[in-house]
């Protein structure tokens, strides 16, 4: 992939390349309310209210009740440390913008010990066994700027393997295979570690640069990645995905079902969620969004009617709820505006890592921090409670803690 596909400072009002793909290309333009157009709507909402506010459409029905019927296990969210968030800061982590791997490794180890109150080996036993197959869910969006740092992933792998987990039992994964490669997650960089994308996508076809769909469309009219998804385990929402080919190219399916990847349902026994610290409008795009929109296909249809609720309801299903035992948010370089894609104008070195078994408490802490940063930098902030209501929704479902008064935020 050519590096010039990524623009570090796109025009202020431009719809970025990834957002164009999210919209399903030209034929899926009806879904352009994702990405930066959604961001703009969020940022301006409340500042210039319409004379006659439109009635809020009814919330689409989902199958969340199916998820809640499945009994929890000892590993289920919010994990062994509900409401506990560890923030580790070291100003030496990224001198001159380059990661000091030794400092980051030390930060990681402090974070684990701070979270559990135990040694690294005993901490391992709280989350894993030596027979587990552990998936590291990275965020490869914004490579070179705000994607999950390779050095943070290195620190996680060093911890797991030092405690007896074989390298062959570790899988670095994301939804898109090409994004993993772009961000440096390759077999050459990680020998012996699995690298898996839930699906492939033909970028040239998605961008309208070619009419040849043979790289992703099979003769029977289905996507080549269909076998990668478990059609017995799904998040259903009463929202149809578009029928055009650009949408299908990116989303594999286009009905009312978002299927979980077989990697989650059939292979991984544990998950470590490793998001980057960034915004999406007045909300954040961190722990719960990294997994909520990364574990299933056919997601763009959900952005407008169920955008943040997806970050709760997808993790409520057993392939995530019962397997995602640890969350490590990479805030070494953070971004307070212009997200969820990278934008160098709003990125800054912050030298922080955040740790939690409870992703909802973690996101509440990070949301509070990003709001403070946005205010510090003079960015208009819409503090409507709906931007954190999804976290409180998760607390009602017993998935985590969102009430700041109940969150133990420990700074190291």
Global geometry: globular
CATH superfamily: LarA, N-terminal domain
Please outline the major beta sheet.
8 strands, mixed
CATH architecture: 3-Layer(aba) Sandwich
Q: Would you tell me which CATH topology applies? A: Rossmann fold
The number of distinct β-strands equals: 12
Radius of gyration (CA) equals 20 Å
Poorly predicted ranges (pLDDT <50, ≥5 residues)?
1-47
> Tell me, what is the CATH class?
Alpha Beta
Which strand order spans the largest sheet, edge to edge or round the barrel?
A: 4-3-2-7-10-11-1-12
Please describe the structure with a list of short key phrases separated by commas or semicolons.
412 residues; alpha/beta; Rossmann fold; eight-stranded mixed beta sheet; 17% strand; disordered N terminus
In short:
The chain has 412 residues and is of the alpha/beta class.
Write the layout of secondary structure elements.
Elements: H1 17-22, H2 35-44, H3 64-69, E1 84-89, H4 101-116, H5 120-127, E2 134-138, H6 150-162, E3 170-176, H7 177-182, E4 194-199, H8 203-206, E5 229-236, H9 245-251, E6 257-261, H10 262-267, E7 270-274, E8 279-280, E9 283-284, H11 287-292, H12 303-306, H13 310-313, H14 318-321, E10 324-335, E11 347-356, H15 359-376, H16 386-396, E12 408-411
Parallel strand pairs: 1-12, 2-3, 2-7, 3-4, 7-10
Antiparallel strand pairs: 1-11, 5-6, 8-9, 10-11
Helix pairs in contact: 4-6, 15-16
